[in-house]
Request: fold
Amino acid sequence: MKGLAAAPGPKNWGHGKKLETDLVQRDGDSQLQTLVDKIKQEIIFGRLRPRERLIEDELSQRFGASRHLVRSAFSELQQMGLVTRRPNKGAIVRDFAPEEVDEIYEMRAMLQSEAASRIPLPADPNLIAELESINAAYEAEVEAHNLKRVCELNNRFHHTMFSACNNHYLSGLIQRVWTETLGIRCYAIGDPQLLARARDEHWQMLEALKAGNRTELVRLCVDHIWPALEAYKTAHGGWQTSGERKGEARPLKVAASR
Amino acid sequence: MKGLAAAPGPKNWGHGKKLETDLVQRDGDSQLQTLVDKIKQEIIFGRLRPRERLIEDELSQRFGASRHLVRSAFSELQQMGLVTRRPNKGAIVRDFAPEEVDEIYEMRAMLQSEAASRIPLPADPNLIAELESINAAYEAEVEAHNLKRVCELNNRFHHTMFSACNNHYLSGLIQRVWTETLGIRCYAIGDPQLLARARDEHWQMLEALKAGNRTELVRLCVDHIWPALEAYKTAHGGWQTSGERKGEARPLKVAASR
DNA sequence: GGCGACACAATTGTCAACAATTTTATCGTG
DNA sequence: CACGATAAAATTGTTGACAATTGTGTCGCC
Reply:
């Protein structure tokens, strides 16, 4: 029933710095956290679409959780930037205004550039080995069309790489923006071409890390993010028309996650 | 009984972008939000000290709010980075490890530098007028030793200035780091010398904004943050001794906020 | 006297019912 | 037939009680 939480990384129960006890408990929060993950998945894979209203009772019975838990989950998802809430009016999947998307991506570019500039080069062999292993797994899951694990491994690849920047707070910020933009990138996930391209760029990053080619590494880390942005823009039809939308673009439909 | 919410700025109920209805509701959330603000104040002014345990029942009756609300407040404060929670073990005021503090301040410097670089120069007269008015009020409240309002106005000054950087997401990030570091800066607030220095530096920033002196503006925005960091470090006695602390430094005691 | 098992108290996590609010549908009136 | 007021339904917000977990003190045993 409980199952293991979907996200592979460490739970984000507060800022898990070493305090007095370093026991990494993986219980207790599981109920809420798994629910949060489930809803997150629904958003990532476009089953819940931007601006769609999230009704507490509905999700409550859909996931077999109490309404109270759903409520808490909304609260977390709101802080993650995945849903928007207004008092007495409930929660909706967050929708990004065009200008907003551009601004966020500008910041992603800046932060990732900064992080890439701080990774010691040539990179630690352990780091390289780990990244290679992750990207190999990524490659395999792309072949297997297992989108859920593709998504996880992609996340892990970047998180592992940027964690090497020697500033935990910076890598934390990047992770935050990453999560926040899940609702944007959902328009790109599932496109085989983009997935293949991402895989190739990952290998290129590894080359740059090995060769100690800073310029190339930074360029790759920045340019790596644009395709998903482009996908979002095209999915939204025109663009530039900041006020009105033409024809309610929708995220790709994807096969059930397993 | 309800009173007006402490924070002067707009409530942060989700990401308040214009959606369909633009009615800025200032009700409904007031209960939770005022509670969050109250607890935040307690942390800022050192009545609740780092690592101190926050017991739900206790705060519940202290603030006359239901335990459920306290719980929600903890949830928000956790995401704000002011408290840390662990499952079944409750919440404590966040405590920063020395390396962590340095990392965060490095990022504050970077983000503020980036923002300062993006503010159009010479600055909009309206912006200058607003900042001058804020800093004048700041000056007055410093004289009056009204720390609570000093804190608010200081926040408002920076937020207003950085909001002019033409990237809402960037100014949002800065605001986030600002909030997160309240628990660090609490060691500096209340020091008259530092307050006076901050006031002067604000005027200098205004000069740079008026004169269109980018280099100076960026320098000021970055250097402005170090004094509080230094105060924190000295308050913690030694330093560098990352593992152990000597003698549990404590935030300044301050007079009751009114 | 030290050490482990047990029981009790303190605290957090969960649930279901109730109250308040918003949205939708209905009805009378000009 | 359009329009505004009113009532009903749907949904969210709040409260209090109950269950589960953790921390602490006590007792018996070696």
Remarks:
- Residues 28, 55-57, 67, 71, 87-90 of chain B lie near DNA strand C (CB under 10 Å from a C1').
- The longest strand of chain B covers residues 83-86.
- Chain B has eleven helices and three strands.
